[in-house]
């Protein structure tokens, strides 16, 4: 659900899905109807919403859209296999797995600048962004303490 707004991103799944697994439906709970639909050629693993953006994770890519009607594709990025749909959407940046297992890709929404950080030696299993967008925590298949990436003034500092 999007903060205090009435929008919810829905992706089909389960034994008897109500929606197809290759679509993202943005549902307006106040109106009780879908207001935006995005369709893809493959299964959607995750969808994230902000007031101005929609981020969608597929198996080998993520796509960023402007939250409008109809949505406008802003950019698309290739990733390593991402069956967990790992992705984070902040006010100023997005984060998701890089093209190589263990890497994290961070993209500044305003500028499109891309940073690739070799955070782990094995594929990512979890990733989350702090509410203020300054810390990204990641974990991999290898059992060890999680990795954190400090995000401050457009500089990224990786700490293990």
Can you describe this structure?
There is one protein chain. With 160 residues, the chain is mainly beta. Helix content is 0%, strand content 51%. It has strands spanning 7-11, 23-28, 33-39, 46-49, 53-57, 61-66, 72-78, 88-89, 93-97, 103-108, 114-118, 124-129, 135-140, 147-152, 155-159. The strands form 4 sheets. The protein has a 4-stranded antiparallel sheet, with no helix packed on it. Strands 8-9-10-11 form a 4-stranded antiparallel sheet, with no helix packed on it. Strands 12-13-14-15 form a 4-stranded antiparallel sheet, with no helix packed on it. Strand 13 (135-140) and strand 14 form a beta hairpin.
Major β-sheet profile? 4 strands, antiparallel
Spatial extent as radius of gyration: 16 Å
Strand proportion, as a percent range, falls in: over 45%
Helix content: under 10%
**Helix- and strand-based class?**
mainly beta
Strand element count: 15
Strand numbers in spatial order across the main sheet: 4-5-6-7
Calculate the mean pLDDT score and round it.
87
Distance between the termini: 32 Å
Q: Can you count the helices?
A: 0
H/E element order:
EEEEEEEEEEEEEEE
What general form does the structure show?
globular
Low-confidence stretches: none
